[in-house]
Structure formats: structure tokens, C-alpha cells
Amino acid sequence: MDQAKDYVGKEISIGAWVTNKRSSGKIAFLQLRDGTNFFQGIVLKNEVGEELFDTAKSLTQETSIIVKGIVQEDTRSKLGYELLITGIEVVGESHDYPITPKEHGTDFLMDHRHLWLRSSKQHAIMKIRNEIIRATYEFFNKEGFMKVDPPILTGSAPEGTTELFHTKYFDEEAYLSQSGQLYMEAAAMAFGKVFSFGPTFRAEKSKTRRHLIEFWMIEPEMAFMHQEQSLEVQEKYVAYLVQSVLDNCDLFLDTLERDKELLKKYTQLPYDRISYDDAVALLIENGFDDIVWGDDFGSPHETFIANQSDKPVFILNYPKAIKPFYMKEHPERTDVVLCADMIAPEGYGEIIGGSEREVDYDRLSQQIEKFGLSTEDYSWYLDLRKYGSVPHSGFGLGLERMVTWISGTEHIRESIPFPRLLNRIYP
User: Fold this and answer.
1) Most exposed: 146, 166, 319, 355, by fewest CB within 10 Å?
2) What are the C-alpha distances in Å from 145 to residues 139, 238, 427?
3) Which residue range forms the structural domain that includes residue 120?
């Protein structure tokens, strides 16, 4: 029914599922979905006859049908169209569908995730996710980036092995990737501007509403680019995604009751920036006694900092000790690195992490050793600093966090079709 406007007044045939129904003595209203959207079908007894009317009244939730009807404009419908039904063919009956219109608990819905995806709100979230994916490819293609696919199985860990899934790779040790970044640096040295878009894995035993075990990351890397230029790409990209959802997911945002005026503010550039130093001072001034310089920020800290603005906020130049080995040291300070996290408004936390990368071979070697990593495992990564090293920067955006924020969803588990959580690998 996404193309209903092109068929007004015409009879069509379409496959659909019944989500709900109500009827009186002479008219039946069928709530239907065809995968693209939700719409209403009307069956008039006087026009279709008793047999077809009885069929319509007997349809049960999630029964699949081939329905014929005439497309009509309907200003009361969010879709703007409805179907005056002239024929119904039952394809697959559905009895005792477990997810009824009543309230269900989260565990029950997660156990039935394979069916919960059919509901209007889950459908809307997945449609927004799809639009963000589509717009991501569009943005990077327009900006002259090439997509490169890093491996999922790796022999080393860019941020240490404590939160990685270990596996055997024949007679060698291997890990499921937690980031494609190091490989994207190699790709940037070959192709200039690149991005990856693939699954990543974290064995972090976290139960927060912001964490998944398996998630998707968009990781651009850019040769001949310093951190300041990278920040401009980041904010431009995020604003592009928000605008694309506003342009192409209007009905789905309505289904989720998302404040579109608020989203429009997030398209206005530039985004605000605050240094880590100033962020710590701001928190202390406002009663956050649990934070001292050198600590990483938790959810309450990020939320407070973000609430000082009505747009996403960059927190710049974190302490070197709490960031990965590959980040470039600040040119004027030895205690912080050239990096930034983008914090989303409304309490949604970090959606992007990025930095300028260390380009000096000796300093990078020292950092690898300092972090207790093997220079042999990273010899290929160090090669990038031996053969034509250039300034380069990159970042990673978590797709599910982006979906959660833009859709206004409370928990990240609803931002991916089949979430993998600490205690959940079913279905």
C-alpha cells in the first residue's frame, strides 16, 4: 500500500495479514498489513453478499489473505487511503495468535520476537532502521567514500581482548571482531576515504538499555584528514540521517509518537563542543561528586552534559589512559588524545566515538607494548606507518544506538530485528 496514491479508484489485488477487525450487521472493518504499511479494508455486506461478508467476519488475527478491492482516499487514516474490499481469499489460517492487543511483559515479547516484529511499533522502528541504512550508503557515496568490508574473524584485538569472543581458527587463536577500524586504516591508505558497515561483537557483561552483544557499526576512515575535519564529517553525516528519516518516515515517526520538531533541531549545524576538562569541571560544579579527572563518563554524566544543549554534543580530548592505543596524542599535551565522543540528546548517550590516529611508527610501537599487546600481531598495522604514513582520522557510529535515538525508543533491544543480549540468544 506504499503506492496507494497511484491506484486511487482502481481495483487492486494484494497479499496481506489481518491484524484486527470489528464489524456490525452491515459493515466490517479489517485492519490489515502488507509488509510495507498498515491500512484499513472495508467490507460492505450489501455490495459483496452474505458469503464474503461472513468470511470477513470470521477472519482471525494474523490470518494471511489475498484481498481485492478499490483504493479510496481516506483523510481520517494516517496512510490517507483505505481499501473497499470486493474479494477475499484465505491463504493461511492463524489460530490462537500469542501476541494479542492486550499488554504483554517484555520477556514474553522477547521470547516471541519472531512474531513481535509484526506489530505496528516494531514495524515502524525497523522501517526507520532501514532508512538509516539506505541513507548511510547514499551519504558516503555522495561524499566520495568507498565501502570496504573488514574481516569478522581477527587474530588480534584493537581495544584489548577482555571483552571479545574467543574462538579457535584451526590451530590458531582468533576473536570475533569488536571493530573493523584497524583494517579500515589500511584501506584508507589504499583508497583515500573508505567506510565499513558490518556486524561487531562485544563480550561485555552489561545489562543496560544501551548495550547489545552483537550490533552493527559504520566505520569511516579518511586519509589526509585531521580530527577537526573528521568532526565536520561526523556532524554532517548524523544530520543527514536525521533529515532522511524526517523526509521518508513520516508515518512511522507518527506511529512511534516521535516529536518531529525536536528531530528537526538535530539537523542544524554545527553541533556544540566541550572539552573533557570543561565537562569534568561542569559536572563537579553541578554536584557530581563521583567524578574526578581521569574517569570515564557514565550514563548520568553524559546525559547531564548533553542536556546543556538542544543538539548532539561533542566531548573532546579524553585522557590518554582511558582510550585505545592507536589514538594520536594531543600536540600540546601528553595526558590527552585527539579524540571525541558524540553524545545524543534526550539521555541516549554516545552514538559516535572517533579520533585522529597515531602516525609515528616509534610512538605507536611503544603504545602497543604499553598496552600489553604483541608487536608481532600488529606488525601489519605498524607497516602502515612505515610506507607513506599520512595524517588520518576516523570514527565509528553504532547503528542500533542511532536507531534507538532517532525513533525515540526506550531500549536498544528493539532497534535490531533479533537482539543478542547477555542472557538471550533465542529466538
Assistant:
1) 166
2) 9, 16, 36
3) 113-415
**What SS3 class is residue 114?**
helix
Same domain? 337 vs 207: yes
Distance CA 182, CA 140 (A): 19
Note whether 75 and 200 are same-domain residues. no
One domain for residues 69 and 149: no
Place 75 in a pLDDT band, splitting at 50, 70 and 90.
confident
Which residue in 378, 387, 297 sits closest to 340, CA to CA?
297
My answer on whether 345 and 241 are in the same domain is yes
Same domain, 40 and 11: yes
pLDDT band at 158 (very low <50, low <70, confident <90, very high): low
* Residues constituting the chain: 427
The answer to whether the beta carbons of residues 182 and 324 sit under 8 Å apart is no
CA atoms within 13 A on the CB side of 354: 32
Query: At residue 2, does pLDDT exceed 80?
Result: no
What whole-number distance in Å separates Cα of residue 203 and Cα of residue 352? 20
Does residue 20 belong to any structural domain of this protein? yes
Which DSSP string do the residues of 85-102 spell out, in sequence order? EEEEEEEE---S-SS-SS
Distances (CA, A) of 129 to 25, 156, 342: 42, 31, 19
Question: Higher pLDDT residue, 101 or 40?
Answer: 40
pLDDT in tens, 233-244: 999 999 999 999
Instruction: Say yes or no: 10 and 141 in one domain.
Output: no
CATH for 372? 3.30.930.10
Burial classification of residue 9, based on how many CB atoms lie within 10 Å of its CB (0-12 exposed, 13-18 middle, 19 or more buried): exposed
Number of structural domains in the chain: 2
Q: Which residues, 6+ apart, have CB-to-CB distance to 261 below 8 Å?
A: none
pLDDT over threshold 70, residue 214: yes
Q: Is residue 103 part of a domain?
A: no
Neighbours of 169 (CB within 10 A): 11
Cell of 73: 482516499
Which grid cell is 103? Answer: 499488554
**Residue 53 shares a structural domain with residue 145:** no
- Cα torsion 292, 226, 231, 240 to 10°: value is -160
